[in-house]
# Entry
Amino acid sequence: MPRIEEELEKRRARRAYVEGVGFDPGRERRAEQRARQLLKSCVNAEEWAMYRDLGFVRVWGRNADGPERGGTDRTLEGAPYAYLVYPHKPIISFLPQTRQLLSEYCVEFPDETRPYGSARLPDSDDVLAKWMALTGDERRLIATANMHLPGRQVDPKQIRRDLWRLSEWERARLARDRRSASGAQA
Amino acid sequence: MKFLRMKPGHGEVLLTEGDPAVREDEERLVAAFREQLEAGMWAAVPEAGPSGRRRAKMVKDYSEIPTDAERVIFFPRAAGGC
# Structure
């Protein structure tokens, strides 16, 4: 009997909520689910599908001369470069036509109030924060970020593979759209 | 109009909501907006651009919020990382 009591005591101790120990997988999962819904409600349908299927979002650059050289209001149209936005990873700028990697922009959105002991936003909130900052004020975000050459944080092989996955994904999506359009006409 | 704030370990939380056309509501919204910016938040309004593509408008003052905005999202300001 003492042994059963001992085991029960150990079991209670294992399951007990210890205040101040931050990480709760269930809470984090629920937070991520909320963040995904918010992201979905803000971005374009294509961007949401991209994130859902591939795990990142491509955001087109708006300064035609490139972010580090700056642009003018007249050159905001057109997009010779774009960014890949990953959760909690640097933003990667690249040239879509050649798949040449340009830079890594290391940027974070730390919440210093640390409501649950962590300053880290859920993954999808981090992506949404980057998306809002890039589409809303690209220059300010890029000026805030620490810029590095490609390969410092994220393996260029992985990025090139993601760019290939993106092109395949777009091809499949386009084919699907064409099929559904021709089906609707028939 | 709803004011939402991203929060670690939670996702977004509703800070306050109200009708900007109603004076009491607007005062509450203005106070909440100032409080968030003073706490170091950035504010953005998701919207559709002229071409129909969605984008965000960053707002630094309550008066910059479009009158037809349904929500303003507050998130921690960016800092260089890595």
Q: What stands out?
A: The CA atoms of residues 53 and 75 of chain B lie 22 Å apart. The interface with chain A takes residues 4, 6-12, 39-40, 42, 44, 46, 53-58, 73, 75-82 of chain B (CB under 8 Å).
